[in-house]
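pinned: reference chain
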Amino acid sequence: MRREMNKQEIYDYLDARQLWYEITEHEAVYTMEEAAAIDMPYPGADAKNLFLRDDKKQHYYLLTVKGDRRVDLREFRQRFHTRPLSFASERDLLSVLGLRPGSVTPLGLLNDAERRAELFLDSAFLEAPGLIGIHPNDNTATIWMRTEDLVQIVREHGNMLYWIEG
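pinned: its structure tokens
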């Protein structure tokens, strides 16, 4: 039986790789509006994460964009030539990324043993200061880390990663 990495295991994973990160503990947040009410050290680096699936439930996509960015699913579908998209169900989220609603994060890809999900990452996260704020598989904290370190983690794990340009 698969066991998902919890918040402490994510911290241990990053520590073992000697990667820089900062933690902001907070109340559980489920929306970008709730997150915006929290005093964050790097407000321009916060991420919005959308977990999507195609209409055949064959392909799963994790879109991670700047927190203030609006996502147009029709445009995404046309740009990346996908089948019709919808938000993945709570069951899909748990089975593919081992996460609960509100805790969606690229670090959930570490729970994706079958590498079923593809990450589409906003290239704006590479701009100075090059940081991204994401949950450590739990929506009671945000960790701030270098975008390049996250990219390396995802690539080493084996999930496909694509860049979304403005």
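why pinned: The chain has one domain: 7-164. Strands lie at 21-25, 47-54, 60-66, 85-87, 117-122, 131-134, 141-146, 161-164.
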